[in-house]
UniProtKB/TrEMBL annotation:
Residues 26-158 form the Tripartite ATP-independent periplasmic transporters DctQ component domain. Pfam families: DctQ (PF04290). GO terms for cellular component: plasma membrane. The chain crosses the membrane at residues 21-40, 88-114, 134-153. It is a multi-pass membrane protein. InterPro entries: DctQ, TRAP_DctQ. Keywords: Cell inner membrane, Cell membrane, Membrane, Transmembrane, Transmembrane helix, Transport. It is found in: Cell inner membrane. This is TRAP transporter small permease subunit. Its main location: membrane. Belongs to the TRAP transporter small permease family.
Length: 166
């Protein structure tokens, strides 16, 4: 079971490493956009949309990696004082009753949204905007699958650690 958890950790780590390069690309695009806007008084809807798409990819596709590193937002006032066993139980219950239903709901709701976007070959409403909106929309369920898999990995790892400490 720990091997399974390690593979899920590695998957999200590699995706997180790859997506981290989007930050550099985003910085370069924003600098280019600012330069064009302030020095040449021109801008493009496609550049602005690309900035938002990259930001969405960075945020969404790194969700699983953020969970892997335990860097997500948590009210730590009580949690930090708990024993390892209590933390594992809280994390397991949180995974089962909050993270899993949330991820499944988002996956279920987003699939028809993407299919419809693909069928109509949705593009930006701005004439100079980006085409193929279904591509950016597809990051929504992909990120939720990665987050759910990482939740499974963390839960398996936590329960395994309880088993080995007894």
């Amino acid at each position: 079971m720990n091997k399974f958890s390690s593979k899920l950790n590695l998957l999200n780590k590699k995706i997180g490493s790859f997506v981290s390069y989007f930050s550099i690309l985003l910085i370069l695009i924003v600098c280019f956009d600012v330069l064009m806007r302030y020095f040449f008084h021109t801008t493009s809807a496609s550049i602005a949309e690309l900035e938002w798409h990259l930001f969405a990819c960075i945020f969404l596709l790194n969700a699983g990696n953020t969970l892997r590193q335990d860097k997500h937002v948590r009210v730590d006032a009580f949690y930090s004082k708990l024993s390892h066993r209590s933390k594992v139980y809280i994390n397991t219950l949180g995974f089962l009753f909050f993270l899993t239903p949330f991820c499944l709901l988002i996956i279920d709701a987003s699939i028809p949204y993407i299919i419809n976007s693909y069928k109509i070959t949705e593009h930006s409403t701005d004439p100079s905007g980006l085409p193929y909106r279904f591509i950016i929309k597809a990051t929504i369920p992909i990120s939720m699958v990665l987050l759910l898999l990482q939740g499974i990995g963390n839960t398996v790892e936590g329960l395994y650690s309880l088993k080995t400490t007894n």
